[in-house]
Amino acid sequence: MRRRVPAAEVLLAAALLVGSAACGSRLPESDFEGRGTAPAPVGGAPLRVGIITSATSPVGGSAFTGPRDGARAYFDRINARGGIGGRKVDVRTCDDGGSGVGNNDCVHKLVEEQQVVALVATASLDYAGASRVSHARVPDIGGQSIGSAYDTYPHLYGIYGSLAPRNGKPGWDGKLYGGTEVYRYFKREQGARTAAVVSYNQAASAAYARLVTRGLKAEGYRVVTEQVDFALPNFRAAAADLKEQGADLVFDAMDTHGNAQLCEAMDDVGAKVTAKVTNVQNWTSSVAEDYKDAPRCRNALWATGSSRNYEDTGHPAVREFRAGMKAAGKGDALSQWQLEGWAAAMWFTDAAKSCAGGAGGDVTRACVDRFINRGRPYSARGLLLPVNFEHLAEPPRTRRTCLSVARWQDGKGWVTRGGDMNDNCFDVPQLSYQP
């Protein structure tokens, strides 16, 4: 269970800040009874997989597309090499528009009508159809855990793993748990002692800020909280105060636009910090453009996550990822979410190869599901921290957790810090929170 609170939930909070996603009404369970259990076609027929993405949503057209693009690039590469056991991968994509209604439509289309053998690299703002995917016993492999679906339902396997029972309720009795490893890292490795948490005066943003504050205090930080008005934010006042308070670190519960404005204000008032900490969703090559008016703050940006830095070209799996993205025409616009989508597609491919001894035989939903749920960690050739899925009756009080860390530097991009991610580990408490 590596619930990446500083990654997934902050994205969801940011989405809610920009605008409310359509809630949508769910279709009755009876509409799906007795359907979706057939195996994928066998023989020489293509292996059909689905990718659901909120490609158009209230948070913008590119916020969720990274996993999809990475997965498609991987499948293109596999198909160029002859497919899986001689069978090509037929990728079916669906844009759910960031709404619950749209997500249910995508699930119905891909799972029920087109009979995909699996979903891969899901990235949905409102995964309203998750229970239907689980009910149809369709493995959903390597999805981004925006919300709590991947800690709620069986047959759903998020990119960061889960130890939760997954019996239809989120986490343990409705509570999820996350570690304090990010805060421990900056305390131990960077000597940080005072942290500022900046949020909007909006419910989702404020709730996430409280969670970050709780984690920081558990690690012994002095915490300075700054809240700005969502409609008319005064970032300059917040920046001036965090400078006055001597903050070493700055965390936030805001969208990318708000982050860029905060960084500009920090540069304007001369606020110098050890790190302006962001998350894996903002770990992209577009930083120079996104933060073009804040050079000092831009070069203090740090990102943390659970996957290997896409800039680590000394690693063979990273080199293959970059070559695949270049072949797909996206070599100049890379992101960590693309790498994680690539890893998700690799995960499905390894599962499909395991079916019928890799001979391209009986690749069914059940066979793929058994491979993913076999109780052995998966690392996608070293691209991911080993991902586990267990069903613990009680949440762990503490857990040894590792993390990947990188810092942005102009002219170099994201530079890995803290050594290899598999060795950058901490025994930290697990704190509960409501999804």
Automatic annotation (TrEMBL):
The keyword Signal applies. The keyword Signal applies. Gene3D superfamilies: 3.40.50.2300. Residues 1-21 form the signal peptide. Residues 46-411 form the Leucine-binding protein domain. It comes from the Bacteria. Keywords: Signal. Belongs to the leucine-binding protein family. This is Leucine-binding protein domain-containing protein. It comes from Streptomyces formicae.
